[in-house]
């Protein structure tokens, strides 16, 4: 059987033109997807059933036992952390929010360690953005800043920018200029018309210099700024001002470097400034296929995109205090539910040391680094493969992922709903 | 020798990210990309083991020559090896300093650990080694 | 079978001509019926003001831009927080509350049906997801067609039936209810950083004018026999002197439908400005209200501004950018490929600001000068003019000249020379308020035949019982009692269940979503039209097969089928 227009559950591009060939309960071929997506669709080595750590041994347990364990663990916790969420569908994320609210826990998603700083900047100065198709059809200038799509979002270039066809561009490949700003000469830099190599930590200064030039204060710019010559900065600013439609796509090269959210703020203010001259937009290259969805779900349900603390009953938001890395590093939480992410691979060591000390339940189809710290792991169906549900693309467009094959695994939403039902029952007076 | 360590995503890290117990994932995320002049200075050949010491500890990786990084900077694919030595401080943003740690690098005879060994060192129990 | 009997209600039900009669209302299985058995549960309304549940005919509560208003505004989220309590979930937000916040606060005010004013088709799934978490109101979404490429091309080709066919396919695909035009043509121009100045200004590349878009889409809307008329946000919102543009747009509209208006012009306060700039800015509510009063084919809503902090959000991207340049606060914009766009900025409306004071006056004037309350509905374009929780104050202002005078004394001192408000003596009565907040909204939306906006047997049992004795309260003098009474129902009944009582919501609820599926002949089925499909697959970034919103997204599905005349 061939499933057409399947939705790839890997990165924030959420490509929805994938053809998946299925034989029985196995994917045997994938067309149109990049290497990352293909590997995910073909993924094997799933955990077969829930497992529990007993002393220094792992034993198999039933779903009922595992779900009961999780509910009891969360109910008896004083400061539970519910973390992850970007690798699952929106319907499951909604249950997670209700759960956090019920047990006065903290719910945080992986954006606190990817584009959390971008969100902080947007909360200061807003966000002039657009859907990807607007860029595809109009943009004659695209800037990748601190992002490396060839490695992290391989089809971004072919679907939306460098190699994409555009309604308002006669010859899109020739008429569309691409600028790459990075500290490394990445693969993406090799296909750029202009590469701006910034000294590490120098992005803020470069952005300020460009703002000054756009405002006509070129005389204030020194000969070089963070390793970039004044001539190149002026050339880049002129390319921006003379474009009919410019689009900036930034990545973790801005959010994780010194300055963090202030870098993003400066970039957004540059774009707002450019809108006084021409049309310009800016957008984050969101990593996980549904990390943006977890921000959306959290926002309509709690008011905040990530880092929400229900310990006082109301939704309380204070990134740096109510975010997962900080809570773990302060050794504050006394139990954790991990869904759709792998903090043990992605968090600093000190956080892992605390993960080793508290009870943890993880929902994940595969054994991963966090498995080593789990008391219980519950395998679930993979959204976009054997489960369906809503995901939000990096530009906010919601797409329903398709099920391409049927398995006996429960979806995240089903497991969480059963857990939540047990918790509600226990809390009835 | 002191280096600025930058972490980031790579295709190989992405391809193996859903299979973190695999040797491929361990190999990719324990690779430290370095400018070849810096490697010469440290007397390193491609694939040699290095000890990388950060603010929170040290970890063994393998060095790989790269034209992408500048001298004085190393690039490590985002994963458990780099995180083994990073500080958890977020400067009140929720985000650790993933791209701005200074590290000390020296040659070593030890081999890099596997991912599950790193996890067990911190108190975990590997399921699928 | 569940039965409920509301006893001794003092009923105002304008669609049935009932004005203050004390009577019982019988309910069975969510519907109003002639009578119920003795076993029915009884709610004693004790002579309290009882009306059909409130209907907001234009509000922004769910979807991409609303959520972005929350996302970018933690300061607004902090300004309204409640914990989980009984069946009520935690809420956050003042001007852009979370979905539960909207639902509970509307319910406590007696509102049972809400029309989301602007849904971009490409992002419709998001609106429907949020509808699911707005459990205590039935919902429906106006669908944006202002910058739709396929429609502009069909208009350029002079093919109105094709315009209708594209609307039909899109509404069915995205589960939309009505046709919305926001700054028609302007949202497409804005994707180049440009705008259209008024209805005769051509849209770049597409070479159609806003006037052509408005007229063609109005005709197409009637060919499809949609329940609601075209819902128009005129060009040129918020600029001094724009009332001529508004009159010009309204002047395009023939009277094509005997059952309801042919054009619904929304938040007209923002489109009733005189003057050549901010220095001589003034009210032009009189020519607009007079024009509307003479044309039954037009219904407007107020778009009332109330003083204080709020968040503006609209599909009108260029207007928001102009506002940003005035206010210098944070600005968000979100253009949507081949369709439309949106913009958001926070604002504070101040009494000490002359322009803001004039805006406040204009909304009230429109309601007081439009002769028939059926032609001017009560809205704030929530949250653009003010959050909807201000409705009770607006009701009191419309019912009390004394209250208006007291407020007028506190606004900018020059306001009196720019507006007619102080000279207007009219005070609306209870019945007129009922028209403006439910009966008129139901008729304008075309949902009275679906059992909304009245309490006749067969209607949905959506009822608001307010702790107001209308024969004892003099609204002209006791306006504070009016505000208090409309702020919190004694009972809100939704689909035959008491869902809110004295400020507390009692059940979790489950909303119904109304949407429209026009039936078109085979040769007008866009899902089979090679040209439409080819362009869709080439220029959208979502496959056509992944575009339609699946029925999984509707918790209760109220599909309205129409027969198109194509």
List keywords for this structure.
heterotrimer, A: 429 residues, alpha/beta, Rossmann fold, Dimethylsulfoxide Reductase, domain 2, 9-stranded mixed β-sheet, 5-stranded parallel β-sheet, 18 helices, globular, B: alpha/beta, Barwin-like endoglucanases, 6 strands
Q: Structural class, from helix and strand content of chain B?
A: alpha/beta
Classify the oligomer: heterotrimer
Q: Rounded to an integer, what's the Rg of chain B over CA atoms?
A: 14 Å
What would CATH call the homologous superfamily of chain C? Metal-dependent hydrolases
Evaluate the radius of gyration of chain C: 22 Å
| Main sheet specs of chain B | 6 strands, mixed, barrel
Low-confidence stretches of chain C: none
Instruction: List low-confidence stretches of chain B.
Output: none
- Total E-strand runs of chain B: 6
Q: Judging by the overall fold, what is the CATH architecture of chain B?
A: Beta Barrel
The gross shape of chain C turns out to be globular
State the distance separating the first and last CA atoms of chain C: 43 Å
Number of helical elements of chain C = 17
The sequence of SSEs of chain B as H and E is: EHHEHEEEHEH
CATH topology call of chain C: TIM Barrel
Structural class of chain C: alpha/beta
CATH architecture of chain C: Alpha-Beta Barrel
Outline the biggest β-sheet of chain C: 10 strands, parallel
What would you say about this model in short?
Chain A is an alpha/beta fold and 429 residues long.
Would you kindly provide a written description of the structure presented here, covering whatever features stand out?
The complex is a heterotrimer of chains A (429), B (129) and C (566). Chain A is of the alpha/beta class and 429 residues long. Chain A is built from 18 helices and 22 strands. Chain A has 2 domains: 46-113 and 289-427, 3-Layer(aba) Sandwich (Rossmann fold); 116-284, Dimethylsulfoxide Reductase, domain 2 (3-Layer(aba) Sandwich). Helix content of chain A is 36%, strand content 21%. In chain A, the strands form 5 sheets. A 9-stranded mixed sheet of chain A has the order 5-4-20-19-18-6-7-16-17, with helices on one face. In chain A, helix 3 (90-102) runs parallel beside helix 18 (412-427), helix 4 crosses helix 13 and helix 10 (203-214) crosses helix 11. Chain B has 129 residues and is an alpha/beta fold. Chain B has helices spanning 11-16, 23-29, 36-42, 80-83, 115-121; strands at residues 2-8, 31-34, 49-54, 57-65, 73-77, 101-107. Chain B has a 6-stranded mixed β-barrel with strand order 1-5-2-4-3-6. The longest helix of chain B is centred in the N-terminal third of the chain and has 7 residues, at 23-29. By secondary structure, chain C is an alpha/beta fold. Chain C has a single domain, classed as Metal-dependent hydrolases (TIM Barrel), CATH 3.20.20. In chain C, 30% of the residues lie in helices and 22% in strands. Chain C has 17 helices and 24 strands. In chain C, strands 6, 7, 8, 9, 10, 11, 14, 18, 23 and 24 form a 10-stranded parallel sheet that branches. In chain C, strands 1, 2, 3, 4, 5, 19, 20, 21 and 22 form a 9-stranded mixed sheet that branches. In chain C, helix 10 runs parallel beside helix 12 (354-369) and helix 13 packs antiparallel against helix 16. The relative contact order of chain C is 0.17. The model of chain C has no long low-confidence stretch (mean pLDDT 97). Chains in contact: A-B, A-C. Chains A and B meet through helix 1, helix 4, helix 6, helix 12 and helix 15 of A and strand 1, helix 1 and helix 5 of B. Strand 8 (128-130) of chain A pairs parallel with strand 16 (332-335) of chain C.
């Amino acid at each position: 059987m061939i499933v057409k227009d399947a939705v790839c559950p890997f990165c924030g591009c959420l490509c929805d033109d994938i053809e998946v060939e299925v034989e029985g309960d196995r994917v045997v071929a994938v067309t149109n997807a990049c290497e990352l997506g293909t590997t995910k669709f073909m993924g094997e080595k799933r955990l077969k059933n829930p497992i529990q750590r007993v002393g220094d041994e792992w034993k198999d347990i039933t779903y009922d036992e595992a779900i009961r364990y999780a509910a009891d663990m969360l109910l008896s916790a004083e400061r539970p952390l519910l973390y992850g969420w970007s690798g699952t569908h929106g319907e499951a994320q909604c249950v997670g929010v209700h759960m956090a609210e019920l047990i006065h826990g903290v719910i945080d998603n992986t954006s606190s360690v990817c584009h959390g700083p971008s969100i902080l900047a947007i909360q200061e100065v807003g966000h002039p953005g657009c859907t990807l198709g607007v860029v595809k059809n109009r943009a004659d200038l695209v800037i990748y800043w601190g992002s490396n799509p060839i490695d992290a979002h391989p089809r971004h270039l072919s679907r939306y920018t460098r190699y994409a066809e555009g309604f308002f561009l006669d010859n899109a490949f020739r008429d569309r200029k691409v600028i790459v700003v990075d500290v490394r000469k990445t693969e993406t830099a090799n296909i750029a018309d202009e590469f701006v190599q910034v000294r590490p930590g120098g992005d803020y200064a470069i952005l300020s210099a460009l703002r000054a030039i756009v405002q006509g204060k070129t005389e204030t710019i020194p000969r070089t700024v963070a390793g970039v010559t004044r001539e190149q900065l002026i050339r880049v600013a002129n390319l921006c001002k003379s474009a009919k439609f410019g689009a900036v796509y930034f990545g973790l090269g801005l959010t994780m470097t010194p300055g963090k959210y202030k870098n993003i703020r400066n970039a957004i203010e540059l774009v707002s400034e450019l809108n006084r001259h021409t049309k310009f937009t800016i957008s984050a290259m969101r990593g996980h296929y549904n990390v943006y969805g977890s921000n959306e779900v959290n926002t309509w349900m709690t008011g905040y995109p990530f880092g929400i603390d229900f310990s006082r009953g109301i939704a309380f938001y204070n990134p740096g205090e109510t975010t997962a890395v900080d809570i773990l590093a302060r050794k504050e939480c006394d139990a954790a539910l991990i869904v759709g992410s792998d903090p043990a691979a992605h968090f600093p060591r000190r956080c892992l040391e605390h993960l080793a000390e508290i009870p943890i339940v993880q929902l994940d189809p595969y054994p991963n680094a966090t498995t080593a710290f789990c008391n219980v792991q519950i395998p679930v169906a993979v959204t976009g493969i054997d489960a369906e549900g809503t995901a939000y693309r990096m530009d906010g467009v919601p797409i329903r992922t398709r099920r391409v094959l049927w398995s006996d695994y429960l979806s995240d939403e089903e497991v969480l709903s059963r857990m939540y039902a047990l918790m509600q029952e226990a809390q009835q007076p | 020798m002191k280096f600025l360590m930058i972490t980031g995503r790579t295709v190989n890290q992405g391809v193996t990210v859903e299979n973190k117990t695999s040797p491929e994932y361990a190999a990719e995320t324990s690779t430290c990309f370095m400018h070849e002049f810096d490697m010469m200075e440290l007397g390193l050949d491609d694939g040699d083991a290095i000890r990388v010491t950060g603010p929170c500890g040290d970890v063994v990786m393998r060095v790989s020559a790269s034209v992408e990084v500048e001298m004085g900077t190393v690039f490590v694919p985002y994963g458990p090896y780099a995180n083994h030595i990073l500080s958890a401080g977020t400067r009140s943003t929720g985000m650790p300093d993933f791209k701005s740690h200074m590290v000390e690098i020296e040659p070593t005879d030890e081999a890099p650990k596997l991912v599950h060994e790193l996890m067990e060192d911190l108190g975990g129990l590997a399921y699928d080694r | 079978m569940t039965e409920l009997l509301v006893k001794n209600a003092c009923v105002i039900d304008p669609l049935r001509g009932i004005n203050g009669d004390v009577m019982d209302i019988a309910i069975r299985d969510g519907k109003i019926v002639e009578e119920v058995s003795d076993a029915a549960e009884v709610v004693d309304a004790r002579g309290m003001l009882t009306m059909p549940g409130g209907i907001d005919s234009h509000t922004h509560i769910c979807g991409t831009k609303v959520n972005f208003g929350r996302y970018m505004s933690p300061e607004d989220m902090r300004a309204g927080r409640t914990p989980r309590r009984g069946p009520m979930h935690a809420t956050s937000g003042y001007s852009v509350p979370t979905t539960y916040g909207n639902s509970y606060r509307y319910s406590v005010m007696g509102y049972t049906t809400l029309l989301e004013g602007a849904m971009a088709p490409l992002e419709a799934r998001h609106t429907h997801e949020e509808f699911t978490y707005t459990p205590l109101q039935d919902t429906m979404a106006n669908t944006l067609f202002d910058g739709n490429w396929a429609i502009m091309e069909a208009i350029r080709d002079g093919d109105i039936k094709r315009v209708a066919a594209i609307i039909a396919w899109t509404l069915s695909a995205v589960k939309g209810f009505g046709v919305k035009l926001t700054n028609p043509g302007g949202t497409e121009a804005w994707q180049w950083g440009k705008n259209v100045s008024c209805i005769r200004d051509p849209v770049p590349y597409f070479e159609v004018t806003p006037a052509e878009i408005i007229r063609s889409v109005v005709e197409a809307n009637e060919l499809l026999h949609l329940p609601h008329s075209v819902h128009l946000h005129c060009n040129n919102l918020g600029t001094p002197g724009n009332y001529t543009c508004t009159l010009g747009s309204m002047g395009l509209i023939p009277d094509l439908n005997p059952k309801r208006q042919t054009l619904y012009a929304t938040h007209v306060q923002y489109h009733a400005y005189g003057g050549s700039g901010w220095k001589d800015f003034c009210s032009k509510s009189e020519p607009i209200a007079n024009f509307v009063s003479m044309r039954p084919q037009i219904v407007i809503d107020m778009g009332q501004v109330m003083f204080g902090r709020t968040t503006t959000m609209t599909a009108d991207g260029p207007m928001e950018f102009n506002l940003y340049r005035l206010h210098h606060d944070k600005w968000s914009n979100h253009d949507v490929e081949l369709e439309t766009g949106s913009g958001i900025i926070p604002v504070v409306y101040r009494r000490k600001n002359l322009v803001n004071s004039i805006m406040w006056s204009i909304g009230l004037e429109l309601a007081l000068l439009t002769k028939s309350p059926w032609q001017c509905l009560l809205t704030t374009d929530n949250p653009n003019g003010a959050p909807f929780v201000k409705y009770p104050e607006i009701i009191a202002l419309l019912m009390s000249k004394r209250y208006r005078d007291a407020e007028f004394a506190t606004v900018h001192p020059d306001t009196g020379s720019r507006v007619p408000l102080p000279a207007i003596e009219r005070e609306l009565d209870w019945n007129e308020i009922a028209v403006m907040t439910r009966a008129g909204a139901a008729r304008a939306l075309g949902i009275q035949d679906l059992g909304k906006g009245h309490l006749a047997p067969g209607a949905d049992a959506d009822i608001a019982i307010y702790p107001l004795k209308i024969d004892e309260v003099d609204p002209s003098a006791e306006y504070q009692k009016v505000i208090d009474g409309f702020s919190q129902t004694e009972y809100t009944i939704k689909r035959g269940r008491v869902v809110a009582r004295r400020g507390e919501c009692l059940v979790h609820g489950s909303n119904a979503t109304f949407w429209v599926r026009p039936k078109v002949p085979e040769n007008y089925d866009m899902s089979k039209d090679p040209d439409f499909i080819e362009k869709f697959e080439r220029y959208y970034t979502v496959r056509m097969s992944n575009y339609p919103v699946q029925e999984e997204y509707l918790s209760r599905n109220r599909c309205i089928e129409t027969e198109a005349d194509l």
